[in-house]
Amino acid sequence: MSDATSTGAGPRPRRGFLAALEIDTRLLGMIGAFFVICLVFNVWTEGRFLTPRNIFNLTIQTVSVAIMATGMVFVIVTRHIDLSVGALLATCSAVMAMTQTEILPNALGLGFGHPLIPWVTILAGIATGVIIGAFHGYLIGYLAIPAFIVTLGGLLVWRNVAWFLTRGQTIGPLDETFQTLGGINGTLGETGSWILGGLAALAAIWGLWSVRRNKVRHEFPVKPVWAEVTLAAIVVAAILGFVATLNAYEIPERRLAQMFEARGEVMPEGLTVGYGVPFSVLLLIAIATAMTIVAQKTRLGRYIFAAGGNPDAAELSGIDTRLLTVKVFAIVGALCALSAVVASARLTFHSNDIGTLDELRVIAAAVIGGTALAGGVGTIYGAILGALIMQSLQSGMAMVGVDAPYQNIVVGVVLVVAVLVDIIYRRRTGDRI
Question: Which string of DSSP letters, residue by residue, matches 314-341?
């Protein structure tokens, strides 16, 4: 018996290939734009853009902005804005740098390399981010100060707080275990990456099957079996292709020899080893999964989108929008701290200019990813893809020798065009509805 018959939906009209797959047209457009950018820069750089090495670097460079962009989705969905994320990242980074280089060694006697240092440091950074974010949310939600003003003030305040905490100095080197979270010094390796890829592929297949099973159970129309299989094949191919690409980036021979020497071993002659999936990417995957679950499966997520869609109706229905604002900005603060972990670990030290202009990149990533500035609409995966598109543009332009001012001009134009396309898309969708 066919699915259409079993669900009582009757024969379904024949549809085109893309329509049968039921892929979000906005998502498809962003993926298409990303591939066009990659192909253009690959031709422009004579094949250097799509090498495993550049893709590896592009991936770890995207993580920091992408983590904050997932939180910016919630902020913009609730009709607010946060201009302080870059400065808050700097403050969290400064707190963590001072914690592991001065406070823990001097106050608690934990020597450099102690196994507790990185984890206590990260907890201190997250606590700092949550407290500052919640404070912003209190000023916005309970004192009714516009988010633009509060976070603009935060941009100025926290950037300089970070400077005073470190006395304007570069702090480093950071703890070696802490550095592994930056991506370059910490990866799963080839075997671990293949295991991760296999588990991710199985999880994707299981997720698609679960959605189909739930639709059948509730007698909703479902996609044709061939469409489900095709979609699963595309997702699995993308996951395994990504893992294969990162594994193809080989650790330099000299660095590999040093790794063997550190273990007291001799590197076999002719040995080659790939980097694999960085730990920072694992962190991004975990955060993206958690934020997606919050957005789609929890009461907090429903309240966030309800308040963004119609604040007055949300308040009349009993949602405490003031407390909700505090929670949203506290979440962003925590994500800024995690982003600070990745950014400073990748640099291996804290610098005064860390996170500079990240607030603009984060907002641009969320908007390019489809988050509506009018509120009520946004996706986590869209923000991450938006961050990847932004970083691809900047990385590609840097590779072809475009000066930084021109890079910012291009990013600004892309942001305006993305908002214009979003407006046109929503108008047309509204006309059809």
Answer: HHHTT--HHHHHHHHHHHHHHHHHHHHH
162 and 308 co-located in one domain = yes
The length of the chain in residues reads: 433
- pTM score, two decimals? 0.90
The rounded Cα 250 to chain-centroid distance in angstroms is 25
The mean pLDDT of the chain is: 87
pLDDT, mean of residues 2-9: 42
> Per-residue pLDDT for 386 more than 60?
yes
In which band, very low, low, confident or very high, does the pLDDT at 287 lie, cut at 50, 70 and 90? very high
Please check whether residues 232 and 198 belong to one and the same domain. Answer: yes
**Sequence-ordered alpha helix ranges (H) in 144-188:** 147-165, 176-179
Check residue 267 and report its DSSP letter. P
Task: Supply the pLDDT for residue 272.
Answer: 78
Number of independent structural domains in the chain: 2
Q: Where are the alpha helices (DSSP H) in 105-252?
A: 117-141, 147-165, 176-179, 189-217, 225-248
As a whole number of Å, the CA-based R_g of the chain is: 23
Residue 369 in tokens = 């990813």
Residue at which a domain ends, from 277, 293, 325 = 277
